[in-house]
From TrEMBL, chain A:
<dbReference type="InterPro" id="IPR015424">
    <property type="entry name" value="PyrdxlP-dep_Trfase"/>
</dbReference>
<comment type="pathway">
    <text>Sphingolipid metabolism.</text>
</comment>
<dbReference type="GO" id="GO:0004758">
    <property type="term" value="F:serine C-palmitoyltransferase activity"/>
</dbReference>
<comment type="similarity">
    <text>Belongs to the class-II pyridoxal-phosphate-dependent aminotransferase family.</text>
</comment>
<dbReference type="InterPro" id="IPR050087">
    <property type="entry name" value="AON_synthase_class-II"/>
</dbReference>
<dbReference type="GO" id="GO:0046512">
    <property type="term" value="P:sphingosine biosynthetic process"/>
</dbReference>
<feature type="domain" description="Aminotransferase class I/classII large">
    <location>
        <begin position="131"/>
        <end position="497"/>
    </location>
</feature>
<keyword id="KW-0012">Acyltransferase</keyword>
<keyword id="KW-0663">Pyridoxal phosphate</keyword>
Automatic annotation (TrEMBL), chain B:
<feature type="coiled-coil region">
    <location>
        <begin position="566"/>
        <end position="593"/>
    </location>
</feature>
<dbReference type="InterPro" id="IPR050087">
    <property type="entry name" value="AON_synthase_class-II"/>
</dbReference>
<protein>
    <recommendedName>
        <fullName>serine C-palmitoyltransferase</fullName>
        <ecNumber>2.3.1.50</ecNumber>
    </recommendedName>
</protein>
<feature type="domain" description="Aminotransferase class I/classII large">
    <location>
        <begin position="575"/>
        <end position="714"/>
    </location>
</feature>
<dbReference type="InterPro" id="IPR015421">
    <property type="entry name" value="PyrdxlP-dep_Trfase_major"/>
</dbReference>
<feature type="region of interest" description="Disordered">
    <location>
        <begin position="175"/>
        <end position="205"/>
    </location>
</feature>
<dbReference type="GO" id="GO:0046512">
    <property type="term" value="P:sphingosine biosynthetic process"/>
</dbReference>
<dbReference type="GO" id="GO:0016020">
    <property type="term" value="C:membrane"/>
</dbReference>
<keyword id="KW-0663">Pyridoxal phosphate</keyword>
Length: 510, 910
């Protein structure tokens, strides 16, 4: 008894001691006196209230803790499965095939691609053993297969080997690349030029190198696929003007300016993007008007001369030579070495600033391996030939006129490309007044025309497009590429074959 | 010349690389693309920049030749002997020897040739002459008009009757080139030289005295034996006949793949790395200090003044506080007492833009004079709708008693009498339904705000769980338990890249942000985990597991206090979970949940990996991926840009390395630019996939076709790796046969994992087929040499004490320099050695800030001596620059060179 009371006393002592230390410590906290006074007074006035507040505090702590510890797994759309169910679902799930097998039409489409045996040129040999007249390849100036070029290329191959084994920035640049860039710049009369190793990725790399989000691009509705990709990658604001319609362009430029003034938006970089000769239909841009408009509204001009470079102008310098506009007026002049010079790759010509900017910012330039040396030399050689023999281009123009003269008389087709008065390549031919605008039917008709012409020894091609991926669905058409490597007689003969094929196939349907 | 150099200078000024001084004016390569090449104005250099394990040059394919060397003391005269190789007579081309021809004299030739190779030589000869004469004319301005002149050149038609005369002509040309002095600008045998005629013999004697042979490039340091010489393949391919210097790049079956853990440098390296930064910072502070005192007008923005409170709630709005109203809500502070509250819509609200909230005076002033009110475009309606909707879902919605006529009008009206919220109420209640677009469906959970609350509570759970979990694991984290941004301190900036990469390369890749100076204080580099209400507890579990493992490896667990093992944390948090890795977990979730909302099953799942990661040299863990693929039926896309032709015992890339049937990989992508020394790339897969691509791929329809020489190069180099099956009978035409064989495509039996050899019909008929190429021993030799070089350099560097990243079998070897100041020095010291070595140095932003590195790209054409030379160079420079920071056993460089074979053959490096 005694011991227990003793121990109790100890306990009480301890309790009172700790209470006093707690109290003194509590009063050491600034403002604690106020709290104590409040609790005391409220307790005196209303003991029930103290109890209530105590319960409230406990409740608050409980809810607080509860909300923090219980994981809330049930998202709005999340379904809880147990492991077994998931396993079943996984077993059940069968993915669609990675690619759908080709339909018979698609197989026929793929099979209809002719394969050339041996070197390509104006008169290649096909797998069937037949030699045909080539109106399908973009070999306008007939540089493909030129002896001089071949010799230079072979020599380069011996000296340099083939691949460059690195992007231009990492020891991939060879002297011949610099040489070709210089040659192109001299040929066009610009300050500098930059070389890309693939024609398709040139323009789709040039546009995003300059145009960023928030910039304004005014582009033609009929631009080619590569430009469309470039516009997409640039993420700029794109305004479209009607295909090859300078009034529409002016209208759009005007409205952009008006809108800017109205919104008091800041000045951003602004670009006009269009093609010299349109890949889709062969129409030609009015370059002087373009330059005038760009100056008036203070835009920069990105001109894709993939088709026109090496096909128009006195010596094939393209639209700038044809219209006698200095190439320096075009801010970024993009061309294709693959089409114009029968080699490979593309270029962008412009001022030093424009070119040097791309050496760091052109994605295709920075990340792609440099083009093989022999192709660069072949292109340089091509430029030399073009420079020294203006007769090539006059032959080309004559041929174009000859073909147009024959095909213009065929009344079941229209030719939207630039009229024969000026040289125009490629010629795009579509059936006039088709039964209805039925893409599949028309493509089939045109394929029949192509097959018929091939049977008669003339190789032509449909203008192939990725249906569903292009910006606008264009009417199917046939594309003729006239070349200077054929004589006028041969061209006329080929045109007559094409004409006969059209009359036979489309006439039969009527 | 002037045109060239000015262009070169222009290119260099563009600063592709951080060390512009190193490459200025010297970037343009003048020579063939092999291993040795000449940088303009500099002596030949061994190239370690190209990704090609070998470059098959045209010459080597057309003209194979063998050499016999005689080593005549100091004179080092080369004695060449033409030999028959295989069925076709060999033709000697002195240009084939790597840089040798400038100093060799032809002693004797054995002329064995047939009519067609005579024609070949005739052409060679013609070219030679053309070049000589055109060069003579062009001395001064050769750059611009070269092509035209050549075209107008009258062709010489001197017929060469024997190989002997051809050869002597070549050597004469070389002798003339030498006599003319200067560095030959091209491959010497074909160099443009003057037209002085002299006897080759005395030119050689004469020039021997002046020439410097110490660079180790013109001649091997050790004279090669004749046996070695006879096995030489071609010009750019270094002599290496020692069969010991071979290795097979292959993953050992049954061994789980694990990458080599990266080492961190000691502190003083980091210290010095930062010293440069500190210097700059000190100068900046000094400038501020002086500026504030002496030019106060310009430094007003740095001077203190009485303040209004401006809270940037970019990270807290919508994430903190019981009602998601941000930090003021969290602390229960009346937000009317804060002068300006700024926040963003980009984070919690998943929209764009931001807001400023404050008193009406402030806002009105801002509307009138703020930049954004006046100049920038207004926010677009969809963005605003997203903001309104997400806010409403957090706030809950008050349904109106009656429908207003038009929502926007009602909104306008309500904004007229702005103070709709009574002054007393600190947190406004729910959003008026009139502020929402009428068409917006209002779910019950949104109206009563339970959806928003659920989100807030999930986020709060995730943040507390991760914060406390990490701390319990023993990591040092900063910040409040309830902060949705969780910084885990790494301190050592070297660990940043490692941590991030290890997280990323786990079976369940976790992407985290690592931040360092200047975003953080200098010493407290950190990983930042940003949590979302959309994370599940399993996600956080996985992060904790990953941190636990990586933390152990990197020694990050430095905090004091009680620690729990990771599984306990996960268990104790809520409940038990299986230990599945996150890719699997992700797949399970994705497959079981299906598409969001509709729960329709996904149509297909495509996993995209890189075979060999080019900056790190690590490999994708394919064995595990393939197992998962079997179970979860996803499609696999492997980018083999860096691994094809370089990895695996048969050079078929990473699938070959791991011994995986590549028919089970759905899409294989690769490039021809690296291993095959050509241009372009390929996609390989089933016929259906390829047909579909032909029809609907962009490149099939719109781009130009590849040119025949490029394709021939690819075919030839592939054939030399594969070996060739000779046909029983000769087909009529090679290309026709090729077309025919493509008709019945499945020539390869399904059972065979690695297709055998290339059909001879695929090769051009004129291509000489040496026996070594037909049986594939040539290709195998190349692959095995590359594998040896790769392993030797990787392990050698590690044994020297350098810190490198990546797998031992990766032909891309990154050597870490850390200090950015050392990059230029390293590159310059390598290039200005007696044997110049060209390397690529890479720094931020291609790598993390601290881990600046050199990238060595190995080739099969390098010999062991070349790699020895690199190791010696690295050893010396590494000592000077204090780069040897790795722990572990070190060997002196000579021991490494002596014990190279042993080093390479070790299964695991200790």
């Amino acid at each position: 008894m005694n011991s227990s009371s003793q121990s109790l006393e100890l306990l009480f002592n301890f309790l009172s001691r700790s209470y006093t230390t707690l109290e003194t410590n509590f009063y050491k906290i600034p403002g604690s006196a106020v709290v104590a006074r409040y609790v005391k007074s409220s307790h005196q006035n209303d003991p029930g209230r103290t109890l209530l507040e105590l319960i409230l505090v406990i409740f608050a702590i409980r809810t607080l803790l509860q909300s923090r510890t219980r994981g809330d797994q049930s998202g709005k759309h999340f379904i809880q499965f147990d492991e077994k169910e998931i396993d079943e679902l996984v077993d059940e799930w069968t993915p669609e095939p990675l690619a759908q097998p080709l339909s018979p039409e698609e197989q026929a489409d793929l099979a209809s691609v002719p394969v050339i045996v041996g070197p390509t040129g104006p008169k290649p040999k096909l797998t069937s053993g037949k030699t045909v007249t080539n109106l399908a390849s973009y070999n306008f100036t007939g540089l493909a297969g030129k002896e001089e070029i071949n010799a230079a290329a072979i020599e380069t191959l011996r000296k340099y080997g083939l691949g460059s084994c690195g992007p231009p920035g990492f020891y991939g640049t060879q002297d011949v690349h610099i040489q070709l860039e210089q040659d192109i710049a001299d040929f066009l009369g610009t300050e500098a030029a930059i070389l890309y190793s693939q024609a398709f990725s040139t323009i789709s790399s040039v546009i995003p190198a300059f145009c960023k989000r928030g910039d304004i691009i005014v582009a033609d509705r009929g631009v080619n696929f590569a430009i469309q990709k470039g516009l997409q990658i640039s993420r700029s604001t794109v305004r479209w003007f009607d295909h090859n319609d300078m009034e529409s362009l002016e209208h759009v430029l005007e409205s952009v300016e008006k809108e800017r003034r109205k919104r008091k938006a800041p000045l951003t970089r602004r670009f006009i993007v269009t093609e010299g000769i349109f890949d889709h239909d062969g129409a030609m841009s009015d370059l002087p008007k373009l330059v005038e408009l760009k100056k008036k509204y203070k835009y920069r001009l990105i001109l894709d001369e993939s088709v026109s470079f090496g096909s128009v102008g006195r010596t094939g310098r393209g639209l700038t030579e044809l219209y006698n506009v200095p190439a320096s007026e075009v801010d970024m002049l993009v061309g294709s070495v693959a089409n114009g010079l029968a080699s490979c790759g593309g270029f962008c010509a412009g001022s030093h600033i424009v070119v040097n900017h791309q050496r760091i910012n052109g994605t295709s330039f920075v990340f792609s391996a440099a083009m093989p040396a022999l192709l660069a030399v072949a292109a340089s050689e091509g430029i030399n030939i073009l420079r020294n023999t203006p007769s090539i281009l006059s032959t080309l123009q004559e041929n174009v006129r000859a073909v147009r003269a024959i095909l213009d008389r065929v009344d079941c087709i229209t030719i939207p490309s630039h009229p024969a008065s000026a040289p125009s390549n490629p010629m795009s031919v579509k059936p006039r007044d088709p039964p209805q605008f039925n893409v599949e039917l028309e493509e089939k008709l045109l394929q029949d025309v192509v097959d018929e012409a091939l049977a008669q020894g003339v190789m032509i091609t449909r203008a192939k497009r990725l249906r569903g991926q292009e910006l606008i669905e264009v009417r199917p058409s046939i594309r003729l590429a006239i070349t200077a490597a054929l004589s006028r007689k041969e061209c006329e003969k080929a045109a007559n074959v094409v004409k006969a094929a059209f009359v036979k196939v489309i006439g039969k349907r009527r | 010349m002037s045109a060239h150099s000015c262009c070169a200078g222009r290119v260099a000024e563009n600063m592709y690389e951080p060390d512009r001084t190193v490459v200025r004016g010297n970037r343009v390569r003048e020579d063939h693309t092999g291993v040795d090449f000449r940088v303009r104005g500099v002596t030949p250099a061994v190239r370690f920049t190209s990704l090609a394990p070998e470059t098959v040059s045209w010459d080597s394919l057309r003209l194979r030749c063998t050499y016999e060397w005689t080593w005549l003391g100091r004179r080092r005269t080369l004695r060449c002997r033409g030999r028959d190789v295989g069925e076709r007579p060999g033709v000697l081309v002195s240009s084939c020897m790597r840089g040798l021809s400038a100093k060799h004299s032809v002693a004797e030739t054995v002329a064995t040739e047939s009519a067609d190779c005579e024609r070949e030589k005739e052409r060679e000869r013609e070219r030679e002459r053309e070049k000589e004469s055109s060069h003579a004319r062009q001395e001064g301005e050769r750059a611009l008009v070269r092509g035209r002149d050549r075209a107008s050149e009258k062709r010489s038609s001197t017929a060469m009757s024997t190989a002997a005369s051809y050869l002597s002509a070549l050597s004469e040309a070389d002798a003339r080139a030498r006599k003319h002095g200067g560095t030959p600008a091209s491959t010497p045998a074909l160099s443009m030289s003057s037209s002085v005629t002299s006897s080759s013999e005395d030119t050689v004697l004469h020039d021997e005295r002046n020439l410097d042979f110490t660079d180790g490039l013109s001649f091997p340091r050790k004279p090669p034996t004749s046996e070695q010489v006879f096995t030489t393949v071609h010009a750019e391919f270094g002599h290496c006949a020692n069969e010991d210097y071979r290795y097979t790049s292959q993953h050992r079956k049954g061994v789980p793949y694990k990458s080599i853990p990266e080492q961190d440098p000691p502190y003083y390296i980091l210290l010095t790395t930062y010293l440069s930064y500190i210097l700059v910072i000190c100068l900046g502070h000094l400038r501020d200090f002086m500026g504030k005192r002496f030019r106060a007008v310009n430094y007003r923005h740095l001077l203190p003044y009485n303040f209004y409170l401006f809270i940037d709630e970019a990270h807290s709005i919508g994430a903190l506080g019981p009602r998601g109203r941000g930090v003021t809500d969290y602390f229960g502070i009346d937000r009317r007492q804060v002068d300006i509250l700024m926040g963003t819509f980009t984070k919690s609200f998943g929209a764009a833009g931001g807001y400023i909230a404050g008193s009406k005076t402030v806002i009105d002033r801002l509307r009138l004079q703020g930049h954004s009110g006046v100049y920038t475009e207004a926010m677009t309606p969809p963005v605003l709708t997203q903001v309104i909707a997400s806010m409403a879902s957090i706030m809950g919605v008050t349904l109106p008693a009656e429908k207003p006529s038009s929502p926007s009008l009602a909104l306008l009206r309500s904004s007229d009498n702005t103070p709709v919220i009574p002054e007393s109420e600190v947190i406004p209640g729910t959003a008026p339904a009139s502020a929402l677009p009428q068409w917006m469906p209002l779910s019950p959970s949104m109206i009563d705000g339970s959806d928003g609350r659920m989100r807030l509570r999930r986020l709060a759970f995730n943040t507390r769980y991760l914060n406390r979990g990490l701390r319990k694991l023993g990591f040092i984290t900063y910040g409040n338990d309830d902060s949705p941004v969780v910084p885990l301190l790494l301190f050592n900036p070297g660990k940043m890249a490692v941590f991030s990469r290890m997280m990323r390369t786990r079976a369940t890749p976790i992407v985290v942000v690592v931040v360092a100076y200047p975003a953080t204080p200098l010493v407290t580099s950190r990983v930042r985990f940003c949590l979302s209400a959309a994370h599940t507890k399993e996600d956080v579990d996985e992060v904790l597991r990953a941190c636990d493992e990586i933390g152990d490896l990197l020694d990050l667990k430095q905090a004091s206090g009680e620690r729990w093992p990771v599984e306990e944390i996960i268990r104790r948090a809520v409940e038990l979970h299986n230990d599945m890795n996150a890719l699997e977990e992700l797949l399970r979730e994705v497959i079981s949940q299906g598409q969001p909302k509709t729960h329709r099953p996904w149509k297909k799942i495509l996993l995209i990996v890189e075979g060999l990661y080019s900056m790190e040299g690590t490999l994708a863990n394919l064995p595990v991926i393939m197992e998962l693929k079997k179970k979860y039926k996803f499609y696999l896309f492997i980018d083999e840009a860096h691994s094809i032709g370089a990895l695996g015992p048969r050079g078929r890339g990473v699938t070959d390395y791991f011994g995986i049937d590549r028919r089970q990989v759905d899409i294989l992508m690769g490039t021809f630019t690296k291993s095959f020394g050509a241009a372009g790339g390929y996609i390989a897969g089933s016929k259906t996939v390829i047909d579909r691509l032909r029809l609907q791929g962009h490149s099939g329809v719109y781009t130009e076709a590849m040119t025949p020489p490029v394709l021939t190069q690819v075919i030839a180099s592939m054939a030399s790796i594969m070996g060739v099956t000779l046909p029983a009978e000769k087909p009529s035409s090679p290309s026709l046969a090729l077309l025919r064989s493509s008709d019945n495509t499945p020539v390869i039996p399904e059972s065979e994992v690695i297709p055998g050899t290339a059909p001879a019909s695929a090769l051009p008929q004129w291509m000489p087929l040496s026996p070594s190429m037909i049986d594939g021993s040539d290709g195998r030799m190349r692959l095995r040499r590359l594998a040896f070089n790769t392993r030797y350099l990787n392990r050698g560097l590690r044994k020297l004490g350098f810190i490198t990243y990546g797998n031992d079998d990766s032909p891309v070897v990154p050597l870490l320099l850390f200090n950015p100041g050392k990059m230029a020095v390293f590159s310059r010291m390598m290039r200005t050695r007696a044997t110049p070595i060209v390397v690529v140095v890479v720094a931020y932003p291609a790598t993390p800030l601290v881990t600046s590195r050199v990238r060595f790209c190995l080739s099969a054409a390098h010999t062991k001596e070349d790699v020895d030379e690199v190791l010696r160079a690295c050893d010396e420079i590494g000592d000077l620059l204090d780069l040897k920071q790795a722990s572990g056993e070190r060997w002196p460089v000579e021991e490494i060179i002596r014990r190279a074979v042993e080093l390479v053959r070790m299964p695991e490096m200790p």
